[in-house]
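Researcher: Hi, I'm a grad student and pretty new to this. My advisor asked me to get structures for two proteins we've been looking at. I'm not sure of the right format, so I'll just paste the first sequence and hope you can take it from there.
Model: That works fine. Here's the first sequence with its structure tokens right after it:
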Amino acid sequence: MEQFVVNNKTYNVIKLLGRGKGGYSYLVKLNNDLFVLKKLHHEPCSYYEFSNKFQSEVNAYKKLKEIGVRVPQLVDSDEANDILIKEYIDGSLINELVLLDQMKDEYIDQIKYFASLCKKHSYNLDYFSTNFVVKDELIY
């Protein structure tokens, strides 16, 4: 079983959740708790340039939280190894709901609200559908 050690805690990988422009996201387990471990990569991205990818990720989390966008809690981080540990939201991705014809207007309204918060604070949100999870009718 693949493992990551973050600040002396061993996270066991359950599965790869996906790969984005910033890194690979894994569903991991520590004791009986599930988390998302994001391992940043330094693969080139033709449409985006990072100065310090780790700090950019942490700053983005803080900014979104500060302006009122609902995001999974940042639980732990390991800058030396480019790893972030986030709360696991056990829900459905927006793209899955679209494919199942279960998309609701309320979800779109929540995304529009997040967009208005970001616009008001001159912040860019990545609207890629796999970045949005629905749990208990709330978008994260």
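Researcher: Oh nice, that was easy. Here's the second one.
Model: And its structure:
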Amino acid sequence: MHLTLRFLGDIEESVGHAILNAAAEVAETIPPFRVSARGLGCFPGPHKPSVVWLGVHAEGDGLFRLQKAVESAARTAGLERERRSFKPHLTLGRIKPPASTLSWTDLAAAHASFDVGAWMVRDVALFASELHPAGARYTRLAAVSLGNTSLGNTGLGKTSLGNDSLGTAE
């Protein structure tokens, strides 16, 4: 399970390094922080759901500072600006059409206050995602610790990174 700060798409290894290094510069100034997961919802909305998510709420501004740094680094690396606003969430699953919108509307409303609990965010990681019929498979490629200037496992692999994202994971 991870919280995506920025979906990067199919990128080259050098772009992944550049974005992770830019994130590291900001990450070293942000101490680990607490987040909680609560509230069920759907993207793009309950009337035409395609993703079911759990909302993420962070203490302080660390999460949003990290996301802004990653977005800025992605733009500097030549990626297009993310058009959607950042809505911290954990993806629980994807819905394939046709889906009954009434049931999802009711489900989201009934579980709007569903609370999973809280945990500490201690690092930012670069993930590769591979889509399979059974669902996505995520591989952690590299990470930087919050409040620490040293890079963690920086071996980003010997091939292009594929469909990657920068996010946090517990």
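Researcher: Is there anything I should tell my advisor about the second?
Model: You could mention this: Strands lie at 2-11, 33-43, 51-58, 89-94, 115-121, 123-132, 135-145, 162-169.
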